[in-house]
Design brief:
The complex is a heterotrimer of chains A (170), B (697) and C (342). By secondary structure, chain A is α+β, with helices and mostly antiparallel strands. Chain A contains 6 helices and 5 strands, in the order ββαβββααααα. Chain A has 2 domains: 2-79, Ubiquitin-like (UB roll) (Roll), CATH 3.10.20.30; 87-165, [2Fe-2S]-binding domain (DNA polymerase, domain 1). In chain A, helix 3 packs across helix 6. Chain B has 697 residues and is of the alpha+beta class. Chain B folds into 3 domains: 19-28 and 441-542, 2-Layer Sandwich (Aldehyde Oxidoreductase, domain 4); 33-127 and 182-276, 2-Layer Sandwich (Aldehyde Oxidoreductase, domain 4), CATH 3.30.365; 392-440 and 545-697, Aldehyde oxidase/xanthine dehydrogenase, molybdopterin binding domain (Aldehyde Oxidoreductase, domain 4), CATH 3.30.365. In chain B, helix 9 (359-371) runs parallel beside helix 15, helix 12 runs parallel beside helix 13 and helix 14 (587-606) packs across helix 15. The chains are: A alpha+beta (170), B alpha+beta (697), C alpha+beta (342).
Chain lengths: 170, 697, 342
């Protein structure tokens, strides 16, 4: 069953027809040709498709497109829409925080989300004192980035890249 | 001896040339190739582990509006070659393993294709399947050879006699689990069959080698190489699983051929990858060590039992590193296989060395314990003068230096006492050696052309994340004697000259050697002042090749493990490796290779385990929620260091290959550290908390 | 995935009516589990009714000093709420121990407790499973039991062909904390509103493993109410898993300790990863009531609780390790809480 929806993707409004079964990820990749979010598992088990959905990091593989009519989506490509890399992206290059690159756009979007969440004072499993504001320590970043698998094993570079982008000297 | 290039660009810490495309997500992977009006394919898999397809009812699938093609064993084209049973897709009614391809649906959308695939009704005559690996099987057999052409068995002296007469004799059985490569990018292909075109078949395929991929597809489909183009500029990880084409590539080509003119996209789901994309066989390793009181080995032996698929043999060379690693007058290695109703095993990062350095490196730790020796010293005491396997001198071997420097950097001398406790955690440290052979493939050609003031080098090489896009220009620049910014390298397309597979840590050694020959040819023909359009090619077989030395990279890995005293949870806050791998072309990408391999080794040590369910006949935990690979929070401080090793024998770059050695030895070092922390010796990977509970207070 | 109709009605009441009227209808909230199941073929609805923007997203104070969590509040929002962090750390910790940042940003208060088991056989439609396909049997018996139950199962090796056999566990961390907190579930159904004590929401397989909860078709969780904890109560959630993050629990413990006086305390304990439902350890609580929380006392209490436990043999040694692990984890969790209350 088809439905017409409008999504704002990386700043541009796109109207498209989707099957009610179409996930947000497939809408982006297969209907709109927006392939910056990657499909690694299609079941919310790897994080490769992470985008910013209405401002927060989320997994479009587990979202039905039809349920997100009107949503605003920012992909890793959209983070550099004006041609200038986002500080997280620059930090990933500086720290060689990727190898094959397939998990990278998801890592980047996730990192942008992490920095915002820490700014808001959101705690994590690694937060020792739940009542205090969290800091961008190694353990905090590693825990918060654990929803993004990297099979190449770039974690040890991803953590300092996120810290660098968050203004912490690592 | 080879004349080593004078390093100017080589050795520089250059950022990846594909970095911007990768952090933006604009680097295009196989499935994402922009094509006009693609159709989508979804495979149908066998749901019995052994038997025969007796009927396929495709009517419900074909009745769906938007379904374009349904292929089954009775409707699919007959392939030109069915010699390779794994690739003889839809050519037989026989089912050799659960998950085997028994059909494919192509439809206008991916949702439809998947729905229609679910509607294909397959009836089977099911037979009893047999899928349990054990050393007690009476049908174990010796393969003619093991992977990479190694001998199946080797023997020297009399291990039995040495074991009987030694001051200390140790006999232990170790096992490694079944592992799946699980690159983050699923195996995927965009295929276009356009019979009227000059090149009728184009495959944008996720592959570690476009030319080997093409050669296989041509053989299977009965096409000439000029009729097929394979393109792969970026590959989202492979770790060996994309080193040889698996059934999905053939299926994608068949689907495209059934739909001329229409590009077809096929990506395996993560779940499908557990039966169709290869895996590392589980291994059972019976290890024997005999030594005198000083720790000098008088015997070393490994008898390996592992599995292959009944439909196709793959024999992992697990015993091979034991043939050359340490000195001992009496030695034996054997490999025995069980042919089971299981998916086809294949390459996974450091086949042979990775599992094969688990048992022996843990056994050495056990021997050191029995002798009261430092495990670093024990290894140093058994350093061979020459290669024990061939008798050849080493091209260079700095294992001892790696152990010493690693020990110093790690703070090994101050290692905590056994079962040391720090708060809620038991702390221990461990060590193991790493090794990987230095290889160069026989085939590869590079072409260098001068255009618009720049040098353009072309070769069908691959960048799996290894850094090829960045490192080949460094080699070419030094070979040409120009600035690296004046060199552009193009890879990942069969339009470029032939290149070998990115495997065996041989990529840079091989392609770089071809580039050096091409540069020499170019300079020989055109001198220092070429004109636009000047062009030369070079083949790797024209590069000097040393046959007189045994060439290996070596390393030592040190681990700090912490085990929770209440729950047995294991954490590894520190991993430190020191490697001797010849000259490092780019320290930034090299460090990532080492650290990435070590991280995958940590993953193998603590998490990875494809749980084989013999009742159902498949991997039970066939997704990334249950097949655990290490996540960010599992990883602490991972350091890779390397010695400034000068090896004049290996190749013009002086490089030994670094893609695989990082995963070799890590798991043993973790086991050894956990033993030191808890007193529990885990001989069966992975080291999970349930195996440690009995040893806690 | 089979086709389905999608509807986003104008109100919660309408949504309930729509689902109640169609036997093959389901509610959709965050979708992190439902969309997963649509793809796997585990869920095969004809109609998906989206309530994500219909139920309340508010976290509000209740007159009795407790908190009401609107069903549409996300797991991230609840875990980050200052009142939750200060008054119900066990809940914040449980939420933060579950899934990942991305998933918690999407998963909801109403949806999380209703997520279904991660039993690998339940999720694979090519294998027999009484929960997914009633009467087809249970593939988990003698199979991969690492994540399976040891409590609330009748035997170590139940009959795999019996239609009632199911050794699956409930995977939610949040639900374990809610069980220990004596939360109340606010439900709207075709017959009107009702309140269900959280401990009664989930059920054991009984003779119908296909049913996870006592909710009737068309009933929707609209909110969860957290009653206030006694003054001085301390609470914590401890999860033991196979990875440091992003893994389901092997075992988990939610505990609330209130000091009643010198050498006497009241303890609430809920266990996760070990039963078809979040397991309130009422026997252990009884044994410990009014006594000192020494390690020996806790061990004795857990021995009573686990007396009827049935380890499930299976691949890689089965899941018998959960029994000592549960005791060890409860001992460690209570030890830390007692130290914190000193």
């Amino acid at each position: 069953m088809d439905a017409e929806i409008t999504l704002t993707v990386d700043g541009a409004a796109r109207t498209l027809t989707v099957d009610t079964r179409t996930t947000l990820l497939d809408a982006l990749r297969e209907r709109l040709g927006v392939t910056s979010p990657k499909k690694g598992c299609d079941h919310g088990q790897c994080g490769a498709c992470t985008v910013l959905l209405d401002g927060d990091r989320a997994l479009p593989c587990l979202a039905l497109a039809v349920a997100h009519d009107g949503a605003e989506i920012t992909t890793a490509d959209g983070l550099a829409a004006d041609g200038e890399l986002h500080p997280v992206q620059q930090a990933f290059i500086d720290r060689d925080a990727f190898q094959c690159g397939y998990c990278t756009p998801g890592q980047v979007c996730s990192a942008v989300g992490v920095l915002a969440e820490v700014d808001r004072g959101w705690p994590s499993h690694a937060t020792e004192d739940l009542t205090a504001d969290p800091q961008l320590t190694h353990d905090e970043v590693a825990e918060r980035m654990s929803g993004n698998l990297c099979r190449c094993g770039a974690y040890v570079n991803i953590v300092p890249a996120v810290q660098q982008a968050g203004g912490v000297q690592a | 001896m080879t004349d080593l290039l004078e390093p100017r660009a080589i050795g520089r810490d250059l950022a990846r040339r594909d970095g911007v495309a990768k952090v933006r997500g604009t680097a295009t992977y196989a499935f994402e190739t922009p094509v006009e009006h693609p159709a989508y394919a979804h495979p149908v898999q066998a749901t019995v582990a052994r038997g025969r397809v007796t009927a396929v009812d495709t009517s419900a699938a074909e009745a769906l509006d938007g379904v374009l093609v349904v292929l089954t064993p009775s409707t699919a084209e007959r392939l030109a070659s069915t010699d390779d049973a794994e690739l003889a897709v839809l050519q037989t009614d026989e089912v050799g393993f659960r998950g085997q391809l028994v059909g494919v649906v192509v439809a206008e959308t991916s949702e439809l294709a998947r729905q229609a695939a679910d509607l294909v009704r397959v009836a089977y005559e099911e037979r009893q399947h047999d899928s349990v690996l054990s050393v007690d099987r009476d049908d174990l057999y010796a393969p003619e050879q093991v992977n990479a052409g190694h001998e199946t068995d080797t023997a020297e002296g009399d291990v039995g006699a040495a074991m009987a007469s030694a001051a200390v004799a140790l006999e232990r059985t170790y096992s490694t689990a079944m592992y799946h490569n699980n690159p983050l990018e699923p195996h995927a292909t965009t295929a276009l069959w356009d019979p009227a075109a000059e090149v009728p078949l184009t495959l944008w395929d996720s592959t570690q080698g476009v030319h080997p991929d093409r050669a296989t597809v041509c053989r299977v489909l009965g096409l000439e190489e000029r009729q097929v183009r394979v393109v792969c500029p970026y590959i989202g990880g492979g770790f060996g699983s994309k080193g040889t084409p698996h059934a999905n590539v053939v299926l994608a080509a068949m689907a495209a051929r059934a739909l001329p003119g229409r590009p077809v996209k096929l990506a395996l789901t993560r779940q499908q990858m557990f039966s169709l994309a290869g895996y590392r066989t589980p291994t059972i390793q019976q290890v024997q060590l005999a030594a005198d009181r000083s720790g000098r080995l008088s015997a070393i032996a490994i008898d390996v039992v592992e599995q292959t698929s009944r439909i196709k043999e793959f024999a992992e060379q697990t015993g091979v590193p034991t043939r050359m690693m340490y000195a001992s007058p009496n030695r034996r290695t054997t490999h025995r296989l069980a042919a089971l109703d299981v998916p086809v095993p294949s390459w996974m990062r450091a086949p042979g060395e990775c599992p094969g350095m688990f048992g022996p490196e843990v056994a050495l730790d056990e021997l050191a314990d029995e002798l009261g020796l430092d495990p670093v010293d024990l290894r140093i005491r058994n350093e061979p003068e020459v290669d024990p396997e061939t008798g050849k001198p080493w091209s260079s071997r700095h294992l001892v230096e790696c152990l010493r420097e690693g020990a110093q950097r790690f703070g090994w001398a101050d290692r905590p006492a056994p079962r040391h406790r720090d708060g809620a955690w038991l702390v221990g440290t461990g060590v193991a050696s790493s090794v990987y052979p230095t290889m160069r493939q026989a085939t590869s050609t590079a072409r260098i052309r001068y255009a618009d003031g720049r040098y353009v080098a072309e070769i069908g090489a691959a960048d799996l994340g290894t850094g090829t896009w960045t490192t080949l220009p460094q080699v070419a620049a030094d070979a040409l004697g120009v600035d690296v910014d004046d060199v552009e390298v193009r890879i990942g397309d069969t339009e470029y000259p032939i290149a070998s597979v990115a495997g065996g840590s041989s990529g840079l050694n091989t392609w770089g050697s071809a580039l050096v020959v091409a540069a020499r040819e170019f300079r020989g023909k055109f001198g220092r002042r070429p004109e636009d359009g000047d062009e030369a090619t070079g083949d790797v077989d024209q590069a000097a090749q040393d046959e007189d030395h045994a060439a290996y990279a070596f390393g030592a890995q040190f681990v700090e493990a912490r085990v929770h005293a209440d729950t047995g949870e294991v954490r590894v806050p520190r991993l430190l490796g020191v490697f001797a791998c010849g000259r490092i072309v780019n320290p930034r990408t090299a460090r990532s290779q080492f650290v990435g391999g070590m991280t995958m080794g940590l993953s193998m040590a603590l998490h990875e385990n494809s749980v084989w369910d013999p009742q159902v006949g498949q991997v039970a935990n066939h997704d990334l929620a249950e097949y655990h690979v290490t996540v960010n929070a599992d990883v602490g401080d991972v350091q890779a260091h390397w010695l400034d090793e000068h090896d004049p024998y290996v190749n013009a770059m002086g490089s030994k290959g670094i893609g695989e050695i990082g995963i070799v030895g890590t798991a043993a070092a973790v086991v050894n550290a956990v033993h030191r922390a808890t007193g529990v010796r885990v001989r069966d990977l992975p080291v999970t908390l349930d195996k440690l509970l009995t040893g806690l207070d | 995935m089979k086709p389905f109709a999608y509807a986003r009605p104008g109100s919660v009441a309408e949504a309930v009516r729509d689902v109640a009227a169609e036997p093959a209808a389901v509610f959709l909230a965050g979708g992190t589990n439902l969309v997963d199941h649509l793809k796997l073929g585990v869920a095969r609805p004809d109609l998906v009714v989206d309530v994500r923007t219909l139920t309340s997203r508010e976290i509000s104070d209740l007159p009795d000093g407790g908190l009401r969590l609107g069903a549409a509040s996300t797991n991230s929002e609840v875990a980050a709420d200052r009142r939750v962090r200060e008054r119900y750390p066990v809940l914040a910790e449980a939420l933060l121990a579950g899934a990942t940042g991305q998933l918690r940003n999407t998963a909801t208060t109403g949806g999380n407790p209703l997520q279904r088991t991660r039993c690998v056989y339940f999720q694979d439609v090519t294998t027999a499973c009484n929960k997914r396909d009633p009467g087809s049997g249970c593939s988990a018996v003698g199979g991969y039991t690492r994540h399976h139950a040891v409590l609330g199962v009748p035997a170590a090796l139940p009959d795999p062909t019996a239609p009632e056999t199911c050794t699956a566990t409930h995977p939610s961390d949040m639900a374990v904390a809610l069980a220990a907190l004596d939360a109340q579930v606010q439900v709207l159904g075709p017959a009107g509103e009702r309140t269900i004590p959280f401990a009664d929401l989930h059920r054991l397989p009984g003779d119908d493993p296909s049913r996870d909860t006592v909710l009737e078709h068309g009933e929707l969780i609209t909110a969860l109410d957290l009653p206030p904890l006694p003054a001085g109560a301390r609470s914590a959630y401890r999860k033991v898993r196979d990875r440091a993050s992003y893994a389901f629990a092997l075992v988990s413990v939610a505990a609330v300790v209130t000091a009643d006086g010198p050498g006497s305390s009241t303890v609430r304990i809920a266990l996760g990863g070990v039963a078809h439902k979040p397991w309130r350890a009422t026997r252990a609580e009884q044994v410990l009531r009014g006594g000192p929380l020494t390690e020996d006392a806790v061990r004795a209490a857990m021995a009573a609780e686990l007396a009827a436990a049935q380890p499930q043999p299976g691949i890689d040694g089965g899941n018998g390790f959960k029994i000592p692990l549960l005791t060890r984890t409860v001992v460690a969790t209570l030890r830390e809480l007692v130290e914190a209350t000193r």
